[in-house]
Design brief:
By secondary structure, the protein is of the alpha+beta class. Helix content is 44%, strand content 18%. The chain has helices at 3-15, 23-33, 63-67, 74-84, 100-105, 107-116, 149-179, 207-215, 232-249, 308-314, 318-328, 333-340, 344-358, 363-373; strands at 38-44, 53-56, 92-93, 118-125, 133-141, 192-196, 202-205, 219-221, 227-229, 258-262, 271-280, 289-297. The longest helix has 31 residues, at 149-179. It starts with a helix and ends in an 8-residue tail after the last helix.
Length: 381
């Protein structure tokens, strides 16, 4: 295992967050790390179909498009259904389903061998909360076997970074699709965004982040434009997280980021601050950046939180969607029962169903996920 090579690939992955055109190079490196011929990355998003992603390593050439014509094959559909039912980050190999003789007789396998010179494939789902489907397919030369245990160990090191980058990229790609820009329209994103240099100072903050820092109700910028928390221990914790993700952006670390709840002087619900690595060669930010991206969610801003995305992604019933909405607005179970004119036990059961379906534990996590799934974007003006 070449750790330096893995860290370099991790850094290259984060460079795609601001520049999706760099996915090919990053996937070339992913494939090389795991001894594969090709790597294919896809994103299917029920809430934003216009920002679906299909990226491939260079050896795939036009194969990603040609392959789509073979999706209706019954055996390929069987593979896709089994793949879709796997837990996140669990690698499914084609040999888990068929032996080599069966594989070589399949029309899709024959096409892959003839057109790409490959035989064995494996797939893995990236997103742990499953609000959207991002997946990776790794393919191997027909002259060798499939993914080995050692190669899977390397892939497992890269998967959190691939998932995190897709997550970062989603709201940015929505802006890019709607406004043909990202940096200049970050103010339209109604959650706080700060882009930090490697020393932790803010290079850019959007309007919502500026509001949060100006309120000084838990977070602010010091004279060096570093993000500070009102509580000293939380400032130290936040700065450690920032230092760790900056190390990843510099190909010297392996953390994909972290979420921290920041207490507020007003005793309102804490800010949710998520920090992730970020790289740019200057094309988007105008700087050779090896820093961090910070997202700040204010759970008290119920005016920008919508649970419609959760309803679509997790198949909430009408009643569950209404309960989810009330819960996100900060209503107690008793208040929800009174508003809906139903028994308290009914509401408790529906709240439990909502939390189970969304894999969240409380209102704070629910709001955080709702904002991820359906980023609040100001469409006025």
């Amino acid at each position: 295992m070449n750790l330096e090579k893995i860290l370099e690939t991790t850094g290259a992955i984060y460079e795609t967050a601001l520049q999706p055109t760099k996915w090919q190079d990053a996937l070339d490196q992913v494939a090389d790390n795991v001894g594969a011929d090709t790597a294919l990355l896809g994103l299917m998003d029920p809430n934003f179909p216009e920002v679906q992603l299909l990226a491939a390593s260079s050896q795939y050439m036009n194969g990603a498009v040609d392959y789509s014509q073979l999706l209706a094959d019954p055996q390929e559909q069987q593979l896709i259904q089994l793949f879709s039912s796997q837990p996140p980050r669990k690698v499914l190999r084609d040999t888990d389903i068929w032996d080599r003789r069966e594989l070589e007789a399949m029309p899709v396998t024959q096409w892959i061998m003839e057109n790409l010179g490959q035989l064995h494939r494996c797939g893995v789902l990236l997103c742990e909360h499953r609000a959207w489907v991002d997946s990776m397919v790794i393919s191997y030369s027909k002259d060798r076997g499939g993914m080995t245990a050692a190669e899977e160990q390397i892939l497992q090191m890269l998967l959190p970074h691939l998932a995190r980058t897709v997550e970062i990229q989603r709201p940015l790609n929505i802006l890019r699709h709607r406004y043909n820009a990202v940096m200049s329209v970050l103010d339209r994103l109604q959650i706080g965004v700060a882009i930090l240099f490697d020393n932790g100072s803010a290079m850019l903050i959007n309007r919502e982040a500026e509001r949060v820092f100006s309120d000084r109700d838990g977070l602010y910028l010091d004279a060096k434009r570093r993000i500070m928390a009102q509580q000293l221990d939380q400032t130290k914790q936040l700065h450690i997280i920032i230092d760790n993700v900056v190390a990843t952006a510099n190909a010297q670390g392996d953390t994909d980021g972290e979420l921290i709840a920041i207490a507020r002087r007003s005793h309102s619900l804490p800010y949710l601050v998520e920090v992730a690595p970020l790289r740019d060669d200057g094309q988007e930010t105008g700087e050779m950046l090896r820093g961090a991206m910070v997202f700040i969610v204010d759970p008290e801003r119920t005016d920008v939180v919508s649970v419609k995305g959760l309803a679509v992604a997790f198949g909430l019933s009408d009643a569950e969607q209404e309960v989810c909405h009330r819960l996100a607005m900060g209503r107690t179970n008793e208040e929800i029962a009174d508003m809906r004119g139903v028994a308290l036990e009914t509401v408790k059961s529906q709240v439990k169903a909502v939390l189970n379906k969304t894999r969240t534990r409380n209102r704070t996590e629910l709001v955080h996920l709702a904002v991820k799934v359906l980023p609040p974007i100001d469409v006025s003006g």
